[in-house]
Amino acid sequence: MHETDIHDLSDDADYAAASKQGSSSVTRSDSSKRSSSSDPEDAQIVYLKDNVTIHPTQYATERISGRLKLIKQGSSLYMTWIPYKGQSSNPRLSEKDKNLYTIRAVPFSDIQSIRRHTPTIGWQYVIVVLSSGLAFPPLYFYSGGVREFLATVKQHVLIVRSSEDANVFLVNNFQDPLQRTLSSLELPRSLANGTPSSSFRGSPSDNNNQERLDTVTTSEDNHSGSGQQNIRQRQKTHDPARDLSIQVLEKFSLVTRFARETTSQLFRDNLVDGHGQSQSQSQGERRRNNWASKDHQPLEMAPIDDPIVPKLVPVPSDPIEFDKLSLVWGKPRQHPLGVEEWSSFLDYEGRIMDPDALKKRIFYGGVEHNLRKEVWAFLLGYYSYDSTYAERQYVVSVKTAEYMTIKNQWQSISPEQAKRFTKFRERRGLIEKDVVRTDRSLSFYEGDDNPNVRLLHDILLTYSFYNFDLGYCQGMSDLLSPILFIMQDESEAFWCFVSLMERLGPNFNRDQNGMHSQLFALSKLVELLDSPLHNYFKQNDCLNYFFCFRWILIQFKREFEYDKTLRLWEVLWTHYLSEHLHLYVCIAILKRHRGKIMGEEMDFDTLLKFINELSGQIELDPVLRDAEALCVCAGENGAASIPPGTPPALPIPEASIYQQQDDEVL
Amino acid sequence: MSYAYLFKYIIIGDTGVGKSCLLLQFTDKRFQPVHDLTIGVEFGARMITIDNKPIKLQIWDTAGQESFRSITRSYYRGAAGALLVYDITRRETFNHLASWLEDARQHANANMTIMLIGNKCDLAHRRAVSTEEGEQFAKEHGLIFMEASAKTAQNVEEAFINTAGTIYKKIQDGVFDVSNESYGIKVGYGGIPGSSGGRDGSTSQGGGCCN
Predict the structure, then answer these.
(1) A629: closest CA of chain B, how far (Å)
(2) More confident residue, A465 or B194
(3) Most exposed residue of A52, A162, A630, B142, measured as fewest CB within 10 angstroms of its CB?
(4) What local confidence, expressed as pLDDT, does residue A10 receive?
(5) Is the ipTM of this complex over 0.90?
(6) Global confidence as pTM
């Protein structure tokens, strides 16, 4: 994925020039007495640049300028960016707002890549992406200095240029095992890779946590990795709502240092009576200090030259300000998985050697169209990842025969028998009515007597016999249509649909409990990730989230063009970051429109209409990136907000295991 | 566009009776036999004129399948009018009317105007419910009744507009407090003499001034 061309950057003319200038910026740092005197004694400022600015909005008056520094301490390099105090011409921009973006001593071991942008008009800027996949807002160098910045970084940290994009510099991207080892010796352990809360949790599984952290550190990119697997077990021991909020904010704070100022603000919103505010704040403070003392001890404990003393500014709650959180975004989307790369995932007998790597690859880029027929069969679970070519051939033939047997069950019902079989006639009638109202504008399904429409009918009716209890419900044809379009084979489409329905079947339960549990989980996640929006929905009687009903029922099928739906589905089906990424997709979309929703004070009816009319207006890639970022931010607290067994999680017997753990704790 | 009133309508009835087609015929004046089945709810709107006043109809077209009833129930809130639709060629869609009506009575405003529509009257040769039966059901339950065809457009205008006329009359008779939006009526910014504040309750009982 991250194929890199490890070559010396000195072949780059920019770098030759920049290296020479590098030292001058170090000297300049001495001119600032205050900064040098207040930095930790053993820390050395190796780069300092003034007028490095972020643009939180498109309005020039809301830009925030500050000072960017690289600080060397021991063998580690840290980056800080501190906004200037009180120079803002815009009264709307409070100190709190500025603090939100402050970057305090981020170690380069936490940084995955730096992208340099050189627009034809305007300032050069860089985007720093963390190993967790999150990114800082673009830093605009108003006074130049991007080259020196990168050159200085290069002097202290191993960076390589991405072979895919010459403007992307990968940090800590070690292909060579020797380098990896060296690096793990040199670089400080960091918690930035996903679970900062685990180290200060006095949970009984502390040993496990430590082990996990050890593995996390050396892995190049693992914000999902092993951390996700222990989530639920650990979460069971501590989950008061307040803790959840704090910890989620701690993750945001990794990016923006948003937490300290905003945590209390959020709790002011949450706790109407205002009691407990100071308590929760001090709790957050305590946790932060714990975290810092374990991991960033020297720099965090020492008073860094911070011209701003963070204060709690009692700003009247303006929820729209929280939109700034959308500055946190996920990784850039990749190109879809192609044939050549696909074959590299297979061994000589056709087994998939590393299913997780495959899923991750598909999560970030999807699959080329001509590969979908093969790959979807794995993603949906029709093929098992460890099956060989020969085994799959065998499965196909066995399953085709099995399909024909089930299909024959309804095909053999005579008209006389049907007369006395109301349930059958009703189902058949519903399906007949619906298949002619499913994607008929697509050439694959258009026209009279289209054989593919007939296949939709036959597969759905066969499914209603295969799963007689569930039967047929509207929405199923929407889910089957793309699968048949891709599989182009009746039996294979049927079995892939069966696999999908193992997960999504509860969406169609008569009592709608599958839908209600997802809508409930969605409301919990919004509460966690955007409490002002949650409060807004609460006040406006919108907490049933029915306005997201269609999104969830048929996996956004009606919201995107057909080809985008195919892309979204294969990404969702990887279950790479979460089985419930679709809920984060919901939140990502809602967050994009939260300003409008709250600003226009939409009531339930208006909101429902507004959401309905977003159909066809949603850009998939940015939403997926936001969803990824939200999922990472929510982390274990997000997973804990989703009750076990919530679709599309498989209704596995593990639910009883969770139950047991609960009992043990109690 | 400015309007004197906005009425919220909801179209209900079994799946496949032609709810979306009726809406499309009313808003776009066309019949499209091939369109995607409704999931959740779809919206349509059209301006009409009653008593020289511009009235905007905002129409909620709901999914008909039984499984979605619990969701559909949340759409009744604040509807001023409902079109309860059955298919004259499918007896069962007529048989289910009582349960639809029960939902409407339970979840909608008591003063909601309900129009019963026997759709697909162009398919007279396949008729399974007689006009008299429809009339009888409407009479028993206090509904307005019409047979219509979304395909030929027969009675489609009338169905929507007569419903609006009934609602309008209720406003004039003072049945509704139009300043209370739970009745499914919003007072607009245009067309009401003496009303400058739109939703201003003090003028909202008006309308009668024109007669």
Answers:
(1) 29
(2) A465
(3) B142
(4) 40
(5) no
(6) 0.64
